[in-house]
Amino acid sequence: MPLPKIPDGPVRLENLTVPGCLMGLADKMTTIDLTLSGETIGAGAADTVLDMKGAMVLPALVDMHTHLDKSHIWPRTPNPDGTFDGAIEAVRGDTAARWAAEDVRTRMDFSLRCAWANGTRAIRTHLDSHPPQDAISWPVFAEVRDEWAGRIDLQAACLVSCDHATTPEFLRTADIVASLRGVLGMVTYPNDELPMQLQAFFTAAEARGLDVDFHVDETLDPASNTLRSIAQTVIDRGFERPVTVGHLCSLSTMPEDEALATLDLVARAGLNVVSLPMCNLYLQDRHAARTPRNRGITLVHEMAARGISISFASDNNRDPFYAYGDMDMIEVWREATRIGHLDHSDIDWPLSFVTNPAVACGFAPPSLDPGAPADLVICNARSWSEFLSRPQADRIVIRKGRAINRTLPDYSELDPLMRTA
After folding, report:
1. pLDDT value at 2 more than 60
2. Which of 50, 107, 111, 182 is the one with CA 20 to 30 A from 341?
3. b/e code 396-413 from CB counts within 10 Å (16+ = b)
4. What is the mean pLDDT of residues 312-341?
5. Taking phi first (over 0 means left), then psi (-120 to 50 degrees means alpha), and beta for anything else, what does residue 24 get?
6. Which of 128-137, 370-379, 412-421 has the lowest average pLDDT?
7. Of 218, 256, 258, 331, which one is the catalytic site residue?
8. Of 115, 137, 118, whose CA–CA distance to 126 is shortest?
9. Cβ contact 238:210 at 8 Å
């Protein structure tokens, strides 16, 4: 049955289904009524009442690991072989040739319009920040953040390689990040200088009062365990600000005892983990004319058993690291459930798409209580099977109490940017 049209409030929506964990309940699903009163969720009755017939309601979603600056460059700079190294080289060339301010701004805005239509309320994006790109992309991001204020809350983290952390240029990048209220970020990989690089990185973060966010062990090499070094450094330094680590693919291939001991250390350090299953599925274990055996998803069930905060996010979007994607967290939810076997489990996985990412990034926590912002996603599904079986293309997105126009931007808008080299 089609979802009803939601009129402007006040309106009472009755017989909605919601995951119990989002209401602080042990029940897998529960039924609630909501009143939309102005820009907030109200309490009590309204003159207009709609029977929602069990449609699922969720707070608007949070996407805590994206790359808005890379988005939509695939048509002009595809990945030649689909591998991680191929993606690195393709992006490096595109950045040097194309990433002027207006190019970055146009692609960012296109992606944000997709996220808005799909029901996302907050995003953390990583920005490639090796000089001179940091001086281009960060001011553009600050302008876009201001333009989108009140619709999508935006954060940015710088993205540099760990060998950059001990250079004077990195301190200047860190100053830009701090001046624009960003997050300090870095890619780690095994090398003899990693302990010194981590010390320099955390010293820069502490001096500027910055949260940190790492790309970690995005490889199936079982010898790559920079995650352990990060966790131990956080413990040894007593670093108190939030630390996020993403990818962690090598945990899936290293010896079990080493992987689990590393996770014990991650739990002790209080790290937030973000898994990017769609991008990792795309890149990892890719070889010409060979079916992939290992799919790259990190050990989310083992993390959950240790009380580690786990989130899932979309990562790349139509760029050389991932040829697909539409800034749609419901797609991420559906695919993560299938890839990671999040079903048939007692774990409250809905928190990993709604609550955990908001807490990890410091965004406003989600709520369906009276007085909370009336920012909702309503799907034509009464159960997990119905929710995860379809893309929910007919979902209703409500922002500030009003159903928004969900028309997605047309790809042809980007055609002027897509001439090939």
Report:
1. yes
2. 111
3. bbbbebebeeeeeeeeee
4. 98
5. left
6. 412-421
7. 218
8. 137
9. no
- The number of helix segments (H) and strand segments (E) in the chain equals 12, 16
Residue 32, token pair as written in the block: 């609630």
Are 41 and 371 a contacting pair, CB within 8 Å?
Answer: yes
Alpha helix stretches (DSSP H) within 215-308: 226-237, 256-269, 277-283, 300-305
In the annotation, is 258 catalytic?
no
Q: Give CA–CA dist 47/288, Å, rounded.
A: 62
Strand, helix or coil for residue 143 = helix
> What sign results for the dihedral spanned by CA atoms 326, 327, 333, 336?
positive
Average pLDDT over the chain, rounded to whole?
96
Structure tokens at 189: 């990989």
Going by their DSSP bridges, the two strands 272-275 and 243-247 should be labelled as: parallel
Cα–Cα dist 201/184, whole Å: 8
Q: Are 199 and 162 in contact (CB under 8 A)?
A: no
Average pLDDT over residues 277-291: 96
pTM above 0.70, yes or no: yes
Of the candidates 18, 142, 78, 99, the one whose C-alpha atom is nearest the C-alpha of residue 324 is 78
For residue 31, is pLDDT > 60? yes
**Rounded distance between C-alpha atoms, residue 304 and residue 273, angstroms:** 10
pLDDT reported for residue 313 = 98
Residue 421 pLDDT more than 80? no
For residue range 66-91, list pLDDT tens digits in order.
999 999 999 999 999 999 999 999 99
Task: Determine how β-strand 396-399 pairs with β-strand 376-379.
Answer: antiparallel
Alpha carbon distance 26, 9 (integer Å): 31
Ordered domains of the chain (ranges, CATH): 11-59+367-403 (2.30.40.10), 61-361 (3.20.20.140)
Long-range contacts of 258-263 (CB under 8 A, 24+ apart): 258/225, 259/299, 259/302, 260/302, 262/225, 262/227, 262/228, 262/231, 263/299, 263/302, 263/303, 263/306, 263/308
Using CA atoms, how far apart are residues 20 and 370, in angstroms rounded to an integer? 17
